[in-house]
Design a protein that fits this description.
Layout lengths: L7 E5 L3 H13 L3 E5 L2 H10 L4 E5 L7 H10 L7 E6 L4 H10 L3 E4 L4 H32 L1 E2 L4 E2 L1 H18 L3 E7 L3 H8 L1 H17 L6 E4 L4 E7 L7
Parallel strand pairs: 1-2, 1-3, 3-4, 4-5
Antiparallel strand pairs: 6-7, 8-10, 9-10
Helix pairs in contact: 2-3, 3-4, 7-8
């Protein structure tokens, strides 16, 4: 229950009585609730806000619930929105239509409170799993472009990102500089002190270099003891 306040829920329902009945139930269950009286208003709020769950009535003036589901899925939202469809339609064909439009689940109207909360709990688990998967993928992506020992970008990131930096600078006619560095007599350190000492030198150099550049600058490892520091919005004299 401690995670519930973080879940923002949008209730799209054109009947004021239904909104008055459902909104306090949802708030008492720990959800942060906003309401919309039609599909167009709901879609605007979804696109401009960050909701994790949408409960929508099927029969609404203008854009109905099934169309709203379809428009939500077409919007390619940055995070997953779990959609629960409230329907008085009893036929299997109607339920299939709603699910194919993009709804995750449905509840018959008027909803039984216990059933509604159980289905929302199931939806919350799906949202949490999707969020965990997205965060895991982001960590994997970061690891794939990061030098794990030095905690700076690797050559793969440099090869990909430097092209974008050059294209951006050329398009907007902004200055861009890059500093190429390498550590003198590094092989001698490895030979005389060992590779552990060499690694310590590399780590310390990366720390010093990162502390000396701005937040918009970035640094990548080019070779064993070679580095590139990329400086957007920086002239040659500034570099």
């Amino acid at each position: 229950m401690s995670e519930l306040p973080q879940f923002r829920l949008l209730l799209a329902e054109d009947e004021p009585t239904q909104r008055l009945l459902l909104e306090p139930q949802l708030k008492n269950a720990g959800y942060i609730v906003e309401t919309a009286s039609d599909g167009e208003e709901a879609l605007r709020k979804i696109i401009n806000g960050q909701f994790q769950i949408l409960i929508t009535d099927w029969d609404m003036p203008g854009m109905d619930g099934a169309t709203l589901c379809r428009r939500v899925r077409e919007a390619n939202l940055p995070t997953y929105l779990y959609v629960l469809l409230l329907t008085s339609h009893a036929s299997t064909a109607d339920v299939v239509t709603g699910l194919e439009a993009g709804a995750d689940d449905y509840v018959r109207k008027p909803p039984v409170p216990a059933e509604l909360m159980a289905r929302l709990t199931a939806g919350r688990r799906i949202v949490q799993l999707e969020q965990s998967l997205r965060e895991a993928n982001a960590r994997i992506q970061l690891m794939s472009v990061t030098d794990s020992m030095l905690n700076i970008f690797n050559r793969r990131y440099l090869n990909e990102q430097i092209v974008r930096e050059v294209e951006r600078a050329r398009r907007y006619e902004h200055p861009l500089s890059a500093v190429m560095t390498d550590l003198d007599r590094f092989k001698r350190i490895n030979d005389e002190r060992g590779h552990a000492a060499g690694d310590e030198v590399l780590v310390r150099f990366a720390e010093l270099a990162k502390s000396a550049i701005r937040q918009c600058d970035w640094m990548a490892r080019f070779g064993r003891e070679e580095f590139v520091i990329v400086l957007p919005e920086t002239t040659l004299a500034g570099a």
